[in-house]
Amino acid sequence: MIQRRSIAMCIVLSLVTCGIYGIYWFICLTNDCNAVSNDPDGTSGGVAFLLTLITCGIYGLYWAYKCGQKIDYAKMQRGIPSSNTGILYLILSVVGLGIVAYALMQDELNKFAPVNMM
């Protein structure tokens, strides 16, 4: 089960904590993408972060593309029309707008999260 997150709060916390919350958000996004696409063998968030760190960000570009593919696959499984968002996330990450890619991913993942009834 994935958790619905406020995109604005995640961005603000990432900026205020100088990126530390961004690392946590990256890990959560990875795990949530694996969960919605029913990919139990997918790379975990911690390993994805470690690989991104070791490769000086190169794995992060691959990660952005793969997360887009996983979200598209999850939509297709549920009969929701999808486009190739992996390319969009990759381009945003290449031009230095990774946080925008994170926000777009979170928006898509929030659609799969259960609605909280309070």
From TrEMBL:
DUF4234 domain spans which residues?
Answer: 5-72
Pfam families for the chain: DUF4234 (PF14018)
Keyword set includes Membrane: yes
Mark the transmembrane ranges.
7-27, 47-65, 86-105
For this UniProt record, the keywords arranged alphabetically read as follows: Membrane, Transmembrane, Transmembrane helix
Q: Which InterPro entries match?
A: DUF4234 (IPR025328)
Q: What is this protein called?
A: DUF4234 domain-containing protein
Q: Which organism is it from?
A: Jutongia hominis
